[in-house]
Design brief:
- The structure is a single chain.
- This protein has about 400 residues and is an alpha/beta fold.
- About 25% of the residues lie in helices and about 30% in strands.
- It is built from nine helices and 26 strands.
- The strands form seven sheets. Strands 3-2-1-7-19 form a five-stranded parallel beta sheet. Strands 9-16-10-11-12 form a five-stranded parallel beta sheet, covered by helices on one side.
- A hairpin with a 4-residue loop joins strand 5 and strand 6.
- The N and C termini lie far apart (about 55 Å).
- It binds flavin-adenine dinucleotide.
- The site of flavin-adenine dinucleotide has 36 residues, from helix 1, strand 2, helix 7 and strand 22.
């Protein structure tokens, strides 16, 4: 009799692929099944708005593992079909194909989908979202055919696609709903760096305005009407107004949902045999003493590892500060940390001799909560250590580029 548990992963993104890899690396040699809705083996999304969109990376380079890796490592891939229902009582999954599968332990890693714009004309041709490799390819083709794009939303996706569109030679107008791009993430002290970056590369930033209607001629979009009463002509529109966790399956199965699927520090949901990881997981972080949901690449990777181990009954957790990165034009940056509900009470700039190089620290009661290194490498780990140390820091020392960060620990 086979006594090894039957492990199933739903969602073929970063978190799902890394969980499968971890199960294998931890010595599990039973049956691992990974079900993914997309036609492709798991791939990385960050290049879709950067090098891949700009035609600088090949499709082969974005996959987490080459396709043969899965069979070679005991992972059975079922691609191109969504799981449509989950019955925790009988531990049965049903896929669109009608196939039913039994699991002993299940990982949900269904990621997010773009938030849809709900205004008249939003379904016209020439209106684009960016989540999948096909979306990126459609954008790349359209960039080569058109001259004017309006981008709705000035978050990471909006800014990265603006940079790619400028690189492709388009006229770019970026609609910023508030006072600055990324203000809710970086605050008013640091967000101007990104506003100036885009302005200096020729992007027309429109502030405190939103789209109230997308205008079309026959089926094709020709412009956008704004809340401030103006109208902008466009050959295409890109919408980047955030993402929504794909919790439908979990919600219908009765799992606890609150800003994603609620999980403990070991990524266990309200059902002890079901785990959740990546963009969908609203995870208890014992270091922070609260739940956080993180829509970033590193979180999906790290939680893939934790989920794989937890599915095998190990006492795994990862309480490192969140991490993400972006590349726009000639600016590359890494951000490490989590600003809590109390916010920050001080921002320290550590400016280097080369004015393009800077590290920013956000502090609360003298403790570093987050740090962002721009055009400087190999410091993210030091920033992480400063955060984890939770020690009060002298702002003058943090600001002084001649003092190594490691010496402040
Ligand atoms: C264009 C773009 C650029 C990004 N750039 C960055 C960046 O620079 N830095 C950064 O840190 N992060 C970036 N991110 C975010 C990062 O890619 C995500 O946080 C990461 O992909 C989350 O991984 P995941 O495995 O949780 O989900 P996903 O990658 O979304 O994968 C989930 C998969 O599950 C599938 N699925 C959903 N429902 C079902 C179902 N019912 N049945 C079967 N399969 C299902 C989906 O089709 C999808 O393939 C970017 C995201 C995008 C879209």
């Amino acid at each position: 009799m086979n006594t090894k548990p039957n492990l199933i992963i739903v969602g073929g993104g970063m978190a799902g692929a890394i969980a499968a890899q971890t199960l294998h690396e931890e010595g599990f040699d039973g049956k691992i099944t990974l079900l993914g809705q997309e036609q492709h083996a798991p791939y990385e999304r960050p290049p879709l708005s950067k090098d891949y969109l700009q035609g600088k990376a090949e499709r082969d380079s974005i996959f987490v593992h080459p396709v043969p890796w899965y069979a070679e490592h005991g992972v059975e891939l079922f691609l191109g079909g969504a799981v449509t229902s989950l019955d925790p009582a009988s531990r049965i999954l049903t896929a669109t194909t009608g196939t039913q599968l039994n699991y002993d332990r299940l990982l949900l890693a269904t990621g997010s989908k773009p938030r849809r714009l709900d205004v008249p004309g939003a379904d016209l041709d020439g209106v684009y979202y960016l989540r999948n490799v096909e979306d990126s390819e459609r954008l790349k083709i359209k960039f080569a055919q058109t001259g004017r794009v309006v981008i709705i939303g000035a978050g990471w996706i909006g800014l990265e696609t603006a940079a790619a569109a400028r690189a492709a030679g388009l006229d770019v107008t970026l609609l910023v709903s508030g006072d600055l791009p990324l203000e809710h993430v970086l605050g008013p002290e640091v967000a101007p760096i990104f506003a100036e970056l885009h302005r200096s590369h020729g992007v027309d930033l429109r502030y405190r305005t939103t789209a109230v209607e997308l205008i079309g001629n026959q089926r094709a979009v020709t412009g956008v009407a704004l809340s401030d009463g103006t109208r902008i002509d466009a050959d295409m529109i890109i919408i980047g107004i955030g993402a929504v966790p794909r919790t439908e399956l979990a919600a219908a199965a009765g799992l606890k949902i609150d800003n994603g699927i609620v999980v403990d520090e070991h990524l266990r949901t309200s059902d002890p045999d079901i785990f959740a990881a990546g963009d969908i997981a609203h995870t208890y972080n014992p270091r922070l003493g609260r739940h956080i949901r993180v829509e970033h690449w590193a979180n999906a990777r790290r939680q893939g590892v934790v989920a794989g181990k937890a599915m095998l009954g190990q006492d795994a957790l990862d309480v490192r500060p969140s991490y993400f990165y972006t590349d726009q034009y000639d600016l590359s940056m890494e951000y490490t940390g989590d600003i809590g509900p109390a916010g920050y009470d001080q921002v320290v700039f550590r400016r280097h001799a080369d004015s393009r190089e800077v590290i920013v620290f956000w502090l609360y009661e003298q403790r570093v909560q987050a740090g962002m290194n721009i055009n400087i490498w190999d410091v993210a780990e030091d920033i992480e250590r400063l955060i984890l140390s939770a020690r009060p820091m002298d702002a003058d020392n943090l600001a002084d580029p001649t003092i190594p960060l490691a010496s402040l620990l």
